[in-house]
Amino acid sequence: VMQDSSVEQWRPVFQQVIIRAICDALGYTNISPAKAAHADAVKEAQEWFMQPDEYFDVVCTVSGLDPERIRRAAIVLIQARWSGDFSRVPQHWREVFAGNRMPNLTNIERALDQLNSAS
Questions:
Q1: CA 20 to 30 Å from 4, out of 51, 84, 89, 92?
Q2: What's the CA gap between 35 and 60, in Å, rounded?
């Protein structure tokens, strides 16, 4: 069992893992869309949120985030982004999708709160 202080220290790092995965799942990867690896990264990230995964739960817990809440929010975003039906996402996310730009998830809690209050 890790000491609380070392968990605190790793929290931002693990939050970055979740943020990166949400961005990847929405198609905002660091890989050129022309490359096959882009589609693979998107698919892999989506599966991480869609399918039960012990590692996912650990990453969320160390991040100080509730795995169920993160999973639910990510799935709503993924479905909206790829179906084009933005009715279940707040204005902020509609603008992100319309502008086809990387969302700013630095404050992941706030970004997902907007989402959960809308649904």
A1: 51
A2: 30
